[in-house]
Each structure stands twice: as structure tokens, then as C-alpha cells.
Automatic annotation (TrEMBL):
Name this protein carries in UniProt: C2H2-type domain-containing protein
Location in the cell: Nucleus
UniProt KW keywords: Metal-binding, Nucleus, Repeat, Zinc, Zinc-finger
Lineage: Eukaryota, Metazoa, Chordata, Craniata, Vertebrata
Xref: InterPro entries: Znf_C2H2_sf, Znf_C2H2_type
Organism, as annotated: Oryzias melastigma (Marine medaka)
Transmembrane segments: none
């Protein structure tokens, strides 16, 4: 009945937040006390809520009980499954209060909001530079560490992101990749650039290539 009446008789003494059910209140209080009574039998990792422990256990068991009826992809967590389903439905329930732009995931909306607020919660431990997104901070950190995530066995592989390319030009692009490798070697030895490559833009697709 409390769902209908809106009654929330259980409150947190730390922050004053109120809850409909005592179990929800108890779980919330553990955020303040940092108590983690639920542990994983496989690796010993501990959690504040039993639901989180149950979801974590599926990493060890490989169980993926949530499946997408559209594409058949399976997931260990319901939250991730719900976010995936929005790709098919096109639903974007999270909107920016400043500009109205909508997103399928709350994390994406929160990251976008920092553009308006100017908040930069991710900082570089080396130089102190701050960033709005963790991915940008991680990419910056590689400047200090010298890490090259697109390198394999000592051979540098540069990631080419192809945003616009005709679907009927895949083979042409693959020829271009091979050609660029050859051209690079020739240019290195002769100092001359011999080849240029262009493709008309008709239908599009998105993919990544490494050269």
C-alpha cells in the first residue's frame, strides 16, 4: 500500500533520505558504513547488496539470463540488458536539461551534462590536467606512459576510423590499406609520395581498420 500512498517511514540518519521498505533503507545505510556483508565464494569480492553479489557470480558461472529477442545477444545484468534494448527500440529516456538532447543511457547523459556545467572530474596524476570524460583522460595519460594500445609485436598499427565509406567500396578500401603500407616503405626510402586514394560517397557504413 505504501507504493500507492507514497509513505516512506524508514529514513537514513546520515543523510535523511527516506525509503518505503526497511530492506531498501538497510542497503542504503551500508553505503555510509561501507559494510559489505555479501561475498563471492569464488574470488572473495564483497558487496553491499545481495543483488550485486548475485550478478557478480554470473561472471564466474558464465550465466547470462537476460537475452534480447531482436538479436539474440545475452547479458549477465538486467540493467545492461535494458540499455541494450533501447538500441532496437530507439528509446532515449535521459534528456539534457540545458539543450534537450536525449540519450539511451544515464551515464552518457551525465557525461554530456559536463559540457554545460564545465565540470572536469577526471584529472591526470602526472600533470594535473582535467577532463570531462574518463576516456579522454585515459588517452591523455598514454602521452606520459608512452603506452601504445594499437601496437602488436613491436610493429606500430595505426587505427583508422572510417566514418563514411560506400558499402560497395570495401574491397577498394582493403586495397588502399595494402597500398598505403607499400607507399610508406617507398616514401621512407625515396622521400617521394606516389599514391593518393579517394572514394565517392554513396551509401555508408562504419568500421575500424588497423594499418
Amino acid at each position: 500500500m505504501r507504493i500507492h500512498t507514497g509513505e516512506k517511514p524508514f529514513s537514513c540518519e546520515e543523510c535523511g533520505r527516506c525509503f518505503t521498505w526497511k530492506t531498501s533503507c538497510d542497503a542504503h545505510i551500508r553505503l555510509h558504513t561501507r559494510e559489505k556483508p555479501f561475498s563471492c565464494k569464488e574470488c572473495g569480492r564483497c558487496f553491499t547488496q545481495k543483488a550485486h553479489s548475485t550478478a557478480h557470480m554470473r561472471i564466474h558461472t558464465g550465466e547470462k539470463p537476460f537475452s534480447c529477442e531482436e538479436c539474440g545477444r545475452c547479458f549477465t545484468r538486467k540493467g545492461i540488458f535494458n540499455a541494450h534494448m533501447r538500441i532496437h527500440t530507439g528509446e532515449k529516456p535521459f534528456s539534457c536539461e540545458e539543450c534537450g538532447r536525449c540519450f539511451t543511457q544515464k551515464t552518457s547523459c551525465d557525461a554530456h551534462m559536463r559540457i554545460h556545467t564545465g565540470e572536469k572530474p577526471f584529472s591526470c596524476k602526472e600533470c594535473g590536467r582535467c577532463f570531462t570524460q574518463k576516456t579522454s583522460c585515459d588517452a591523455h595519460m598514454r602521452l606520459h606512459t608512452g603506452e601504445k594500445p594499437f601496437s602488436t609485436h613491436g610493429n606500430s598499427h595505426r587505427k583508422i576510423v572510417v566514418d563514411v565509406l560506400p558499402t560497395n567500396a570495401v574491397s577498394l578500401f582493403e586495397e588502399k590499406v595494402s597500398l598505403r603500407k607499400k607507399t610508406f616503405c617507398e616514401k621512407f626510402h625515396t622521400g617521394k609520395k606516389k599514391h593518393f586514394f579517394s572514394v565517392p560517397q554513396n551509401e555508408t557504413f562504419h568500421t575500424n581498420y588497423y594499418v
